TrEMBL record:
<dbReference type="Pfam" id="PF03031">
    <property type="entry name" value="NIF"/>
</dbReference>
<dbReference type="GO" id="GO:0008420">
    <property type="term" value="F:RNA polymerase II CTD heptapeptide repeat phosphatase activity"/>
</dbReference>
<keyword id="KW-0378">Hydrolase</keyword>
<protein>
    <recommendedName>
        <fullName>protein-serine/threonine phosphatase</fullName>
        <ecNumber>3.1.3.16</ecNumber>
    </recommendedName>
</protein>
<dbReference type="GO" id="GO:0005634">
    <property type="term" value="C:nucleus"/>
</dbReference>
<keyword id="KW-0539">Nucleus</keyword>
<dbReference type="InterPro" id="IPR004274">
    <property type="entry name" value="FCP1_dom"/>
</dbReference>
<feature type="domain" description="FCP1 homology">
    <location>
        <begin position="12"/>
        <end position="194"/>
    </location>
</feature>
<dbReference type="InterPro" id="IPR039189">
    <property type="entry name" value="Fcp1"/>
</dbReference>
<dbReference type="InterPro" id="IPR036412">
    <property type="entry name" value="HAD-like_sf"/>
</dbReference>
<dbReference type="InterPro" id="IPR023214">
    <property type="entry name" value="HAD_sf"/>
</dbReference>
């Protein structure tokens, strides 16, 4: 397992917080057509592409490796990334290829100001399982928060993980009933939780706002704490808000485990 990012930023980590973000179904949904559809379908696809491109700024199309990709960004994602970058050093950690990851990160962060070259991808992980591992991130685990829609991807770092509801746009008939808004959607709730983590870590009353400067957020003079302990403390104080973030992206067994944990927490409160 290589360490692509570690050597570059080891000296910069200091006491800053780090946020490691998955891509697919966390920040967007991307579908691909492989092999390319027949001519007639391709024509209608192109027509749909032009129609969508004219009316939507959050849907993108591109061709790569002989496939056609269509990407729908998660609502609120750009604002989320911008505000989160004021509090955390952001990394992408995906099981997609490096070429795919770079292409998608460019859609999310065209200027490169948010992620820079901090992208960990499939080529950096170890086969055959390609489990994601914090050893590839040049921060101590006590400084890292992970956000991913797939908890099984992080078998060794579950304590640092916030499992976010899986984002589905294409073919999801129930999507119109899901709240993905800037006030109550999964990314909005996540941003609020991250703000609380940051505030507790640095003992400050920092408010998440676009006016906060990057210089202020990178003030790393406060003594280091353990972000895992802070997350656990906040969970109990917020009556399991992290469980609510987690519930809908889980498979059956993971859901049962999460449900059992939530029920135990409720029992602890009433007994
Ligand atoms: Mg994912």
């Amino acid at each position: 397992m290589s360490k692509p990012a570690a050597s570059e930023e080891r000296e910069e980590q200091s006491d800053c917080l780090c946020l490691v973000l998955d891509l697919d179904h966390t920040l967007f949904e991307c579908i691909s057509f492989d092999p390319p559809p027949p001519t007639q379908s391709l024509q209608s696809l192109v027509a749909m592409r032009i129609s969508l491109s004219q009316s939507r700024s959050d849907i993108f199309w591109f061709q790569q490796f002989g496939k056609i990709y269509c990407v729908k960004l998660r609502p609120f994602v750009r604002s989320f990334l911008q505000q989160a970058s004021f509090m955390f050093r952001l990394y992408v950690f995906t099981n997609g290829s490096r070429a795919y990851a770079k292409r998608l990160v460019h859609l999310l962060d065209p200027t490169g100001n948010i992620f820079g070259n901090r992208i960990i991808c499939r080529e950096d992980s170890t086969p055959p399982d390609y489990h994601k591992d914090l050893c590839l991130i040049p921060f101590a685990a006590s400084q890292v928060v992970i956000v991913d829609d797939t908890p099984s991807a992080w078998p060794k770092d579950a304590k640092n993980l916030i499992v976010i509801e899986k984002y589905r746009f294409f073919g999801d008939v129930a999507r119109s009933y899901k709240n993905e808004s800037a006030s109550g959607g999964p990314l909005a709730k996540l941003l609020d939780f991250l703000c609380r983590i940051h505030e507790a870590f640095f003992d400050g009353g920092m408010e998440v706002d676009a006016r906060i400067s990057a210089e202020k957020s990178s003030d790393c003079s406060t003594p280091k704490k353990d972000v895992v302990q802070i997350m656990q403390s906040l969970e109990s104080r917020l009556s399991g808000s992290r469980c609510r973030l987690a519930a809908s992206g889980l498979n059956r067994n993971e859901f049962i485990v999460t449900l059992q944990a939530a029920l135990l927490k409720i029992l602890e409160c009433i007994t």
